[in-house]
């Protein structure tokens, strides 16, 4: 067994004198960045701790430290330097944060805050050191709590895998979106069962293992690919197992067993299978250094990049200027608000009349931060009933996002569950919802901002970003037209007739919002 002194020597020993000043400056800059964007870091830490999808991220910081320690023996042979192109990287990271701040997109804010930490490394340590730290710097991306955007897609994929296996096992089943009807009962592939938390954790592991355990790029790609495909397939098998068990032991027993299995125990089994399958293909020798300082010093491109050296004073002043510009622009954009009328009303619609709003299962879309909200019901002479929800926002930003998570047609923590995409409507986003497992509702959403009419949250975000970058005040209107399916009146037909009766929808929304 090696002594501590031997371990220290193998790790590179004490910090060289040429590294002490740059490392202190880097530590100081990181403290400034963590303080300047403390709200974003606090929000991320809460997500890592409170949301099971992101619990694995708590392991990423120590992994990053270990990755740097792996490379330290070679890194200390390089000479750190201040490098002015690092300001371009830092400016790009600050711009990503700014886009998130002015659009209310937390994901961009958080990605920008993390990217600024990474960009400060080439700025203060130079291109050669950054080349040696390239993988840890890229691995910082796994600190971003990303993945919730994949939930609906993974729900649909899991449902299709599950019903396919159910049919193969001889059990009759009918699939409707994320709901599977079997003789033992109706099963839902809920958001919690989508497998997203295992997928993103497995991808993080796969990328790490690909770098640490493999040298061959085809093997690295195969490892990451396996960490994408295997958890998706395994999650489908798990869901099928629950349905299969329910046919023999009852739905309650099967659900109870699934709750025991479905957790990090399930993840450990899948992870173990992937490692077992990849073990014999590991091709990095145990004693092989992760990086080669001599090769980095001798690299012609890196040598030319080193000529772009600047003083640390210039680098630090440039960093401060970029931070002040990003924070100042975000502050100004956040205070822009369009003038709105004191009151708005749902108008008369030709061929339709207003009726009492009394749904069998209460449905009221979410519109946090909106200055005005309207919810009412219209009926026509053909027996059609539609529910209309309209929200008007003076601006978009943190806490007032028309297309934000938990906003819109699907009420969180309610009797309503997302069932799948609905019939296409021009410019709108169509969704099918299921209430209490029995009431089917179709909801179509449109957003209006300036001349834009769309059902795409991404297009709305881009429009809002454009407005805020130009410091231009434009209100946002969210319209949701919904109906429940009845034996004599399909929801899609009632919605189509209503939208046709309003005339051009963009002009109708503007009239309701009193913008025309």
3D structure, described in words:
- The protein has 516 residues and is of the alpha+beta class.
- The protein has three domains: 180 residues, no CATH class; 133 residues, no CATH class; 161 residues.
- The protein is built from 18 helices and eleven strands.
- The strands form two sheets. Strands 4, 5, 6, 7, 8, 9, 10 and 11 form an eight-stranded antiparallel sheet that branches.
- β5 and β6 form a beta hairpin.
- The chain is flat, with a radius of gyration of 28 Å.
- The N terminus is likely disordered.
- Keywords: Cell membrane, Hydrolase, Membrane, Protease, Transmembrane, Transmembrane helix.
- GO terms for molecular function: peptidase activity.
- Pfam families: DUF3485 (PF11984), Exosortase_EpsH (PF09721).
- One of its GO terms (cellular component) is plasma membrane.
- It is found in: Cell membrane.
Helix content: 40-55%
**Helix and strand string, N-terminal first?**
HHHHHHHHEEEHHHHHHHEEEEEEEHEHH
CA-based gyration radius? 28 Å
Beginning-to-end CA distance, first to last residue: 81 Å
Average residue-wise pLDDT? 90
Apparent shape: flat
Quickly give the structural class: alpha+beta
By DSSP, the count of extended strands is 11
Domain unit count:
3
Largest sheet: 8 strands, antiparallel
| Count of alpha/pi helices | 18
User: Strand-residue fraction?
Assistant: 5-15%
Stretches with pLDDT under 50, minimum 5 residues: 1-11
């Amino acid at each position: 067994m090696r002594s501590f002194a031997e371990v220290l020597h193998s790790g590179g020993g004490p910090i060289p004198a040429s590294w002490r000043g740059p490392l202190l400056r880097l530590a100081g800059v990181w403290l400034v960045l963590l303080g300047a964007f403390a709200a974003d870091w606090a929000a991320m830490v809460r997500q890592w701790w409170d949301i099971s999808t992101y619990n694995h991220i708590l392991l990423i910081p120590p992994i990053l430290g270990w990755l740097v320690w792996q490379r330290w023996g070679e890194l200390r042979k390089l000479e750190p330097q201040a490098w002015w192109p690092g300001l371009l990287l830092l400016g790009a990271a600050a711009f990503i944060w700014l886009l998130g701040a002015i659009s209310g997109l937390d994901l961009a804010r958080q990605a920008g805050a993390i990217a600024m930490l990474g960009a400060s490394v080439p700025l203060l340590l130079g291109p050669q050191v950054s080349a040696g730290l390239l993988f840890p710097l890229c691995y910082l991306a796994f600190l971003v709590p990303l993945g919730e955007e994949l939930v609906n897609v993974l729900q649909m994929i899991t449902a299709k895998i599950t019903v396919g296996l159910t049919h193969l096992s001889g059990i009759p089943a009918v699939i409707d979106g994320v709901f599977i009807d079997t003789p033992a009962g109706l099963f839902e592939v809920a958001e919690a069962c989508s497998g997203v938390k295992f997928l993103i954790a497995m991808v993080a592991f796969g990328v790490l293992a690909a770098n640490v355990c493999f040298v061959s790029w085809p093997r690295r790609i195969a490892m990451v690919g396996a960490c994408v495909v295997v958890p998706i397939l395994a999650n489908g098998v798990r869901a099928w197992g629950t349905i299969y068990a329910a046919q023999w032991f009852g739905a309650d027993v099967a659900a109870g067993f699934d709750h025991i299995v479905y957790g990090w125990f399930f993840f450990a089994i899948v992870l173990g299978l992937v490692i077992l399958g990849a073990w014999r293909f590991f091709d990095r020798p145990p004693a092989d250094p992760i990086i080669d300082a001599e090769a980095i010093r001798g690299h012609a491109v890196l040598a030319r990049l080193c000529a772009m050296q600047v003083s640390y004073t210039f680098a630090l002043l440039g960093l401060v200027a970029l931070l002040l510009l990003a924070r100042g622009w975000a502050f100004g954009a956040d205070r822009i608000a369009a003038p709105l009328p004191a009151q708005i009303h749902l108008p008369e619609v030709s061929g339709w009349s207003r009726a009492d709003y009394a749904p069998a299962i209460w449905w009221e879309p979410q519109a946090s931060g909106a200055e005005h909200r309207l919810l009412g019901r219209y009926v026509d002479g053909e027996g059609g009933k539609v529910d209309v929800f309209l929200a008007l926002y003076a601006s978009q930003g943190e806490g007032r996002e028309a297309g934000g998570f938990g906003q819109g047609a699907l009420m969180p923590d309610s009797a309503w569950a997302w069932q799948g995409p609905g019939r296409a409507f021009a410019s709108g986003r169509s969704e099918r919802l299921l209430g209490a497992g029995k009431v089917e509702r179709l909801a179509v959403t449109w957003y209006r901002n300036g001349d834009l009419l769309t059902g795409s949250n991404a297009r709305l975000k881009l429009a809002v970003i454009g407005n805020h970058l130009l410091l231009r005040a434009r209100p946002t209107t969210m319209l949701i037209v919904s109906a429940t399916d009845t034996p004599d009146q399909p929801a899609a037909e009632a919605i189509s007739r209503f939208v046709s009766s309003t005339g051009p929808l963009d002009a109708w929304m503007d009239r309701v919002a009193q913008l025309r």
